[in-house]
Amino acid sequence: MKKKNQPLSRSALFCEGIMNQEKFHIQLEDRIIKGVLHLLPTSAPAVVTCHGLFSSMQSEKFLHVAEVFSRVGFAVVRFDFGGCGESTGSIADTTVSRRLQELEAVMQHISGHAKLTGHYGILGSSLGGYVGLLYAARHPVDALSVWATPKELLSLQHNIPADDLQKLKADFFSDAGRWNLPAEIAALQFVQVIQGTEDELVPWQHAELMNQILQEPKELLLLPGADHRISQPQHRKLATAQSLAWFKKHLL
């Protein structure tokens, strides 16, 4: 608890909404997608963050990204996929196709915003990176940075903890089988792939194979010893710094 008269830290200021944040909600057929835009005083390019399968926009990872990126001139968009965080719906109903629909709705919602320049990047983690790549294969995106992102999903079901696996319906994997990410991204450019070598869910070879398929300019960064969540402070700091450098080069 903050002591009386103790100044708020920058992180506290950020999270308590003293900085310029604009909440939004999007009504889809059977669920409401909720999110927040971190806006700057002047118009800025936006980085849209896409969380992983069982995560949310409130993860420390994306709060940190939003704070760091907004300091140097990026607007940031955080949102919850259906059944996660503040969005309605059930995680049991989630599929790649539904998440792609949700990301498309978010991008449409922010398109034309007065405080955004119309230049967009996507920073996705795990399934969020997978969905972000699928979106970019269909819509204009200036640059992407994907962390711990699989090239395919079916082989990973044995790596998902049993308690989490029980939250999903068989529809998740039958829908996943419809998508061929390597074929989808064969023409994509401006993609940075960041991957931990000790990822317990997504083998690091997925990142190498994706990088081979992608077109220049592209970048592959392997983080020795990093896990799936890139949870260690030194790994997360490096990943954030490398993503920021990528977006400064290709988005600002």
Rough shape? globular
Q: Enumerate the spans where pLDDT stays under 50 for 5 or more consecutive residues.
A: 1-18
Span between N and C termini?
38 Å
Please give the oligomerization state of what you see.
single chain
Domain module tally = 1
Question: What proportion of the residues form beta strands (DSSP E)?
Answer: 15-25%
Quickly give the structural class. alpha/beta
Q: Provide a count of the helices.
A: 9
Provide the CATH top-level class: Alpha Beta
- Sketch the topology as an H/E string, one letter per element: HEEEHEHEHEHHHEHEH
CATH superfamily: Alpha/Beta hydrolase fold, catalytic domain
> The CATH topology, please?
Rossmann fold
Described by strand count, sense and barrel closure, the largest sheet is: 8 strands, mixed
Backbone CA Rg? 17 Å
Instruction: Estimate percent helicity.
Output: 25-40%
CATH architecture: 3-Layer(aba) Sandwich
Mean pLDDT: 93
List the strand order in the largest sheet. 1-2-4-3-5-6-7-8
The count of strands amounts to 8
Give descriptors for this structure:
alpha/beta, 8-stranded mixed sheet, 252 residues, 21% strand, Rossmann fold
